[in-house]
Specification:
Chain A has 5 helices and 2 strands. With 113 residues, chain A is mainly alpha-helical. Chain A is extended, with a radius of gyration of 17 Å. Chain A starts with a helix and ends with a helix. The chains are: A mainly alpha (113), B alpha/beta (609).
Amino acid sequence: MSSTDKKATQNDKKLAKFWSDLLLPAAKQLKRRGAELLDTATSGSSWSKPPSDVPELSELSPAALADHLQARLEAEGLSELAEIVPNMMELADELRPSAQTDEEVNPFVYVMH
Amino acid sequence: MTSHVLGVSAFYHDSAAALVSDGRIIAAAQEERFSRKKHDPRLPTSAINYCLEEAFIEADELDAVVFYDNSLLTLDRALRSIVAGADGGSDIWVKSGPALLGVKPFISEMLRDALKADVPVLFAKHHTSHAASAFYPSPFDEAAVLTIDGVGEWATTSIHRGSGNNLEAVEEIRYPHSLGLLYSAFTYFTGFKVNSGEYKLMGLAPYGNPKYVDLILDHLIQLDDDGSFRLNMDYLGFVDSNRMTNDRFNDLFGGPPRTPEARIGRREMDLAASIQQVTEMAMLGLVRRARESTGCVNLCLSGGVALNCVSNGKLLRAGVFDDIWIQPAAGDAGGALGAALLAAHQKFGCARPEAPKGRDRQSGSYLGPRYATGEVTAFLDRHSYPYKHVADLDALASQAAELLAGGKIVGLMHGRMEFGPRALGGRTIIGDPRNVETQTVMNLKIKYRESFRPFAPSVLKERVSDFFDLDSDSPYMLLVAPVKKERCLPFELDMESDDLLEMVRVPRSDIPAITHVDYSARVQSVDQYDHPFYFKIITQFEKRTGIAVVVNTSFNVRGEPIVCTPEDSYRCFMRTEMDALILEDCILLKEEQPEVPEDDSWKVEYELD
């Protein structure tokens, strides 16, 4: 197994652990209380106003990004997700080196998320 | 003082860089052209370097670098989408996590590291970048701007109003309701590659019968009177799985998706026709809404869905707006240009440059590198490749036209490379449209691809109405128009057959190589200002044949990015059955070139698109 493959496997494990420890419990809790994560209604107008709290041009350091994301989730009543943002940013820091390699990201996955 | 702004799009697909100085576009290019990896999503370091070189500046002279997408909104949307689809398991999270978390928060640092300069990094919103790329280079002082794509942040469709150097967001439709993703779902289901095969699906549509339209409208998308739409996620897989469609979708359309590269059957043709028709209905509703909500009489279009030139042609003919301008780099690459223009005009207050009378500010989209005669001859001399230098461009155009009229296929690398997915005469392969065999030969012996897809015509601007029912310019090959009735030949499409090759071989007009089975063509109108040499070639061809049209296809083989350099061009020339190659003002004939050893291994070098 190459060092790149090893790194990818380690990252997969970290992501899977984050999923089972934090993300899945948050998802279950959100589902239990019927929180709306996406507007999936099948009828009615879908026009919305653009979010006014995000300027057309902004600076975004990793710390600012985390703060804004947490505030945004909190404001939308998704405190379960807001709470895990700091952990998510820690994980982001750990994943960062592998993302800086020259590997191509699967475009199919990218179009999804 | 001059302001220099670099725009960057990356980490999704089709990364690119663009440089704008004092509101004027200096350069723009996609990374794939340099890296030779199609749809390259990586940080576009080569494209950035090229843009800086073209502007004669160093990175530390930049006033800002603008990324085309807002990481906050993207992360917010992706996180919620993944959690909403949690019942589908951890697969999506594990697969997308490294790209999402490992990249998005660190883009500022990655850009500064790449530039080796401590420049301000700004983030524009994805759809505002698209909107800016459509409005600022357009010929309009005021316009409605409609942007439609798959997904970036939350917005999948948006309406802006542009006026002077101001761009104002009006309203948007949000993920998961996405016309682009619905089209991509059908791209996937019919066995083509998402994010690159959409234009194949569009090309397949005229062979089909739109028999699934009602099924799509009843189950997959609801179109509202106000132009908005909603998708029914029960049939689509992109929220809760890593597939575009699911088993319910399969049941609806009679079985699993077509395996890529398997034979295309009647079902795929009918699905292509059906989703094309639904897309056109949805786009017409959106365009009407844009007219109502902005009160503008002109329309700008951008976003990947704006590359649907069949739909664009119909929108133009619908007459909702007086005029339409479409950003030629309508996909994510164009976001780099839009991001730079947005900051130049809105942050640095640059006025929009004057548009040349009756034309736009995109300079024909010839915004990439050019190779001077000295660079070309140095390359050819170094390798001892036989060539003739013809300094008189009239004589060279005449020679090219002579070859074309004799049925030869000519590769053309002349002037600056195009920005956007279409080849417009800068990096183009051209042929005789009168020849019945041209389409088959160019497809199978040069492009190495499926032969159902039509080629595009490049036509002298002044002669457009002699050949096509089109009252508007189409310099970027983004409008499909009917071939003039008097040029068409009787032909009945067998709507029960699934033999595409048989259908392709039947001549449909006196310019069969560019006439699709529905008598339509994807028109590029060529004027003498943006690409004088290409204009000369077509003029000379007309003198010899009476036809002011040549067949134009991009200078590449299937799966390969369009060529950039003389070396790329020569390599592609020698690997295919092109007869002649024009490199700037040098001409090479295949018969005079040294033989290359038979080796087909390069065909696997490029992943099929």
